[in-house]
Amino acid sequence: MSQSPTPERQIWMFTQMLRIRAFEESVKRAFTEHPGVIRGHTHLADGAEASIVGSLSHFREGDAALATYRCHGYPLVLGSDPKAMMAEIFGRADGLCKGLGGSMHLTDVKRGFLGTSGIVGAGIPHAAGVAWALQIRKKGNVVLSFFGDGAAKQGAFHETLNIASLWKLPVVFVMENNGYNVVTTTVQEDANAAAGEPLAVKAKAYAMPGVTVDGNDPLAVHAAVGDAIERARAGKGPTLVESKVYRLSAHGNIIAPPGVPLHYPEHEAIAVFGKREEYEAALRGDPVPRFRGILVKSGALSAAMADDLAAGIAKEMQEAVAFAVKSPFPKLESALEYNYA
Amino acid sequence: MSQSPTPERQIWMFTQMLRIRAFEESVKRAFTEHPGVIRGHTHLADGAEASIVGSLSHFREGDAALATYRCHGYPLVLGSDPKAMMAEIFGRADGLCKGLGGSMHLTDVKRGFLGTSGIVGAGIPHAAGVAWALQIRKKGNVVLSFFGDGAAKQGAFHETLNIASLWKLPVVFVMENNGYNVVTTTVQEDANAAAGEPLAVKAKAYAMPGVTVDGNDPLAVHAAVGDAIERARAGKGPTLVESKVYRLSAHGNIIAPPGVPLHYPEHEAIAVFGKREEYEAALRGDPVPRFRGILVKSGALSAAMADDLAAGIAKEMQEAVAFAVKSPFPKLESALEYNYA
Amino acid sequence: MANMPYIAAVDAGIHQEMRRDPSVLYFGQNLATTENHAFVAAYGADRVRVTPISETAEIGIAIGAAMSGLRPVVELYMAEFMLVAMDQVVNEAPRFRYMSGGQVKVPIVLKAGYGFTAGWAGQHTGSLTALFMGVPGLKVVVPSTAADAKGLMATAIRDDNPVVYLHHYMLTLEHGEVPDGEHLVPFGKAEIRRAGGDVTIVATGWMVPRSLAAAELLAKEGIHAEVIDPRTVSPLDLETILKSIDKTGRVVLVDQAPRHASVTAMIAADIAEHRFKSLKAPIIQVTAADTTIPYSEPLEAHVIPDEARIAAAVRQVLK
Amino acid sequence: MANMPYIAAVDAGIHQEMRRDPSVLYFGQNLATTENHAFVAAYGADRVRVTPISETAEIGIAIGAAMSGLRPVVELYMAEFMLVAMDQVVNEAPRFRYMSGGQVKVPIVLKAGYGFTAGWAGQHTGSLTALFMGVPGLKVVVPSTAADAKGLMATAIRDDNPVVYLHHYMLTLEHGEVPDGEHLVPFGKAEIRRAGGDVTIVATGWMVPRSLAAAELLAKEGIHAEVIDPRTVSPLDLETILKSIDKTGRVVLVDQAPRHASVTAMIAADIAEHRFKSLKAPIIQVTAADTTIPYSEPLEAHVIPDEARIAAAVRQVLK
Ligand SMILES: Cc1ncc(C[n+]2csc(CCOP(=O)(O)OP(=O)(O)O)c2C)c(N)n1
Ligand SMILES: Cc1ncc(C[n+]2csc(CCOP(=O)(O)OP(=O)(O)O)c2C)c(N)n1
Ligand SMILES: [Mg+2]
Ligand SMILES: [Mg+2]
What we know:
The complex is a heterotetramer, with 2 copies of chain A and 2 copies of chain C.
Chain A: H1 7-33, H2 49-56, E1 64-68, H3 73-78, H4 82-89, E2 113-117, H5 123-137, E3 143-148, H6 155-166, E4 171-177, E5 180-181, E6 184-185, H7 186-189, H8 191-194, E7 210-214, H9 218-233, E8 239-244, H10 268-271, H11 276-284, H12 287-298, H13 303-326
Parallel strand pairs in A: 1-2, 1-3, 3-4, 4-8, 7-8
Antiparallel strand pairs in A: 5-6
Chain C: E1 2-5, H1 6-20, E2 24-29, H2 38-43, E3 48-51, H3 55-67, E4 71-78, H4 86-90, H5 96-99, E5 109-114, H6 129-133, E6 139-141, H7 146-158, E7 163-168, E8 175-178, E9 191-194, E10 199-203, H8 207-219, E11 225-229, E12 232-234, H9 238-248, E13 251-258, H10 263-274, E14 284-288, H11 297-303, H12 307-318
Parallel strand pairs in C: 2-3, 2-4, 4-5, 5-7, 6-7, 10-11, 10-13, 13-14
Antiparallel strand pairs in C: 1-8, 6-12, 9-11
The complex binds thiamine diphosphate (2 copies) and magnesium ion (MG) (2 copies).
One thiamine diphosphate sits at the interface of chains B and D.
């Protein structure tokens, strides 16, 4: 059993949750405050903060994480510079990926965030491949593979989990089940969900442990993923962790050709299904204020300290946006620079 | 519960098993008796007779079956002319598919055998698609989807079983688990098998019933697949049936470029793993003599009747080979005829 | 005639056929998740269904349904998403009729958008038409106007073969006049978008308006370009292209794909074999740079053919 | 020098690199299932593993391992089997370096055979080279001799980029002299298999020996053909081809694929743009018929280019 984090560590966790939320809110605001600077399709992690931080709080030197297009939270927790992240999202020369990748493909290899695929499910085998390398190196390192509930319906998920289990690869599959694949609810597309079963049941097809955890509780996620990581580091193989979260923003900004100003629509629960109550219940369960309440109640954090934290983080993110807006566009030649090593 | 077949029906089942065995032995002999007439890669069903016949003995007008490159048994049971089948395997104008498809792609739409894919797993969604059409037509028809244990590791298997369960499609997934994917044993490539679990466990990932049956016992297969078919006809959705069989020939003939005479090597258990005992045990469990023994013991069939049956079938298959050898090659122009409808 | 956006015309084509033929199905991800969805409301849940994110199964299921006499249209959103199911697209759907000696037909339509060079970066911006163009048994259509979007969709649905229907994301909201009522556009008939006698420009999809803009530019210089839009690349109406070249003797081919992944290379090779004698100048291709598409706006614009580059190529073949 | 079959030379190339570099992995289906397997015996189970039938995971795992500093060689057997994992091949492996702004490398080798027109019928006989050729970030090699099979494999393994290594099944047992010890063949350097001044023939894989046989035939008629084997189609050594055309003024391109799925169309288009002035005759392609490959032997032979058709095309460009 992995130990519960110290009060200091819990404050660190809360801080990271605040930073993710503040970063994503800055990105969202940029659509209106800086029209046109963000292009294509941007996906936010607000609502998944507890799950992301609880999972990454076990991260060690030499560990690795890979994720999807919904990738802003992870590198932020792992230490990437929000300035460089925002500059990447704005397509600027100072971007984490020199402006070539954009919002969907944040990558920071130095910090163990090896990259993302924008193709659903495609990044899952990449994580297993990294795990194979770590298994060969025998340093007790692990890989965290983050993906969504919908991705579990891609062949890549199935093929990879079978091999990972067979080879006892040091990888933890963290499925962020936010109940939606864009505008499709999980019960509409998943046979287990339709039968009222947790998605973690899928682990049985791979003779692998499968656990479901409240992804709004960073300590519960810390414990569940912690156990899975211990297991992986010990050479006992992978685990499937279903972390139940709620996406607080729409799937992504509206999809439109150039000329149409991009923005964030209302969440699909309201805009498509007219289930305002579902969405408001989710807001009431918002992991950020919830954890703040727990920490303040436990005395680990005073309300004043919490407010200071938030204020400092708000400033950090404002600076990130200011930096990104000022950062120049990359040189045109750089468009042809990185196709081949 | 599906009823056990009448004695007459059991004799019909035994007859079909004998026909499959005799057909496959004729194909195998053709490699030496008619060198060069069979090209490419041919896969035999010997050892799976009980499973094939037990599964197809419920077939009704309007039902459909789809399979893989290992496809000789099914159309034979469904009434295809062995002459046309053999002619196809010899690449002749009188072939079931006019010589265009060959051994891996036998198709007889009139008899409900809609075709095969030579790509592992690829035919599984095709069967589900046929099932959707039958579901829309509401005539209580079902589809049988035949594939191997190895195919369960393809993404197509995973994606299709989830949708089939979600949509309650009238399809039965019959996995012929013969313990091998070419020269790889199931425990070497399947996480459930490696954990000592039946492959039918995979059904849990799709909230679908999964059963394992002795594929060497035609009556057991008849019962298991019968229940699944009843369920499907009743609109209750698909079932995964794991039918445990043993492939009595090698995976296929040797793979070699033109010039090298093709032939059938020894079974991989002996040729690769040196496990002669495993193979001999399989021979002792051969479903054909085993069912003959049961029928003779029960008095349903006399030894003499059984021998007459076998003799008649031997003649039927000799005639098929004689017909196929004499059948002309297709006209060259026909090579371009069927690319587009 | 009604004036509507390109994307509405695509839907109009599907509606036209679903209304007249109950065997037409429409399914895919993220559609029909509520009863208010236009298609499920009109045609019911038997014919219109949402799927999980399972392209291999989606396309494979379409193949099976088609072999059973139905006419599925699969909504795939982006051409790249077909890559996870490429075997079904190029090695299953187009093979079954042939391998069965003509016993089955596989009338499916695989509908996908492409070429979304609007900040979608490396994995969602491809122009993959050439991957499908040469596959025997497949047909490939690339509408560039609202009218063709409707008419080619309707023809695709009625066609008895697998059809890859590629609509261009950059044209999504381009409005155009679309014939009311039944409208069908034949496969294998190129459209001359602009007549001219000095040079032939061949382009598809979004490159058609860019080529027309270049032609406009050139007209001011007294250069009269003929702009041809093949509309379907399989079957390809080579005849119309060759006839134009017999007249102009000069040709520029425009493609949004990298050079060795382009449809224009296929056309250039055909021209070089069949019209060598008519040619007065090299066959020049204007294609994307050989690169993954960058996210950053100026870089993205830098690697994609624009009217200036097209016009420059025309001036070059006229030298 | 050792005389060995083409397929043994492929293995020799893998052995050469696995011996010198512990970061090289070799894995895939149906290999190393007993300890007697040559590779697992030599390099151990950490580096040599059998996989389930899961190409998407196999190639995806290779990508991840490569991003972590290893050099995986994936055994895929037949090019068609890559189609179920096409996204990993064309939209993952070649994208990561670019999208990360150069932070990662993806040195993988995807080894697959192709073109097995020996009765393998519709789904196992494809010549799919053109599907990979134009993908930015990928390299594509097509050895036609035993020596190149070894040397190109070694170079592919040392290359820091994803390489699709396509060996030709019809050449499996063709013997050839292979240099002992370390042998590397550079990418992007075509080989002139036969020198001649009258006409240039360009061919890859199995079409190389067939083109040489045609050249032999033509020599008896006093026609001297130069036969060029690009050996790698990405990068493509256009220079050597163009130089030859400057000399001969005539070119025939031979490809086992259907015309609009051919590598030769890409080359023809490049020639038509860059050497229009040197050409004295149309650029003729000799390709497979536009059809799924039939099973029956005479029909199969009928649709694939042979020396007679190649020779006829040469005579035509010399008219
Ligand atoms: C193979 C593939 N199919 C479809 C898409 C389009 N798409 C992008 S995100 C997405 C939803 C994914 O849902 P989920 O896995 O639950 O992740 P979430 O977005 O909810 O975090 C879809 C369908 C894609 N990118 N790749
Ligand atoms: C996608 C794909 N990968 C690999 C192959 C090569 N292959 C043909 S049959 C076969 C073994 C299949 O094993 P299984 O599913 O158990 O069926 P069996 O042959 O045992 O009946 C393999 C790997 C293929 N045809 N398709
Ligand atoms: Mg989700
Ligand atoms: Mg098997």
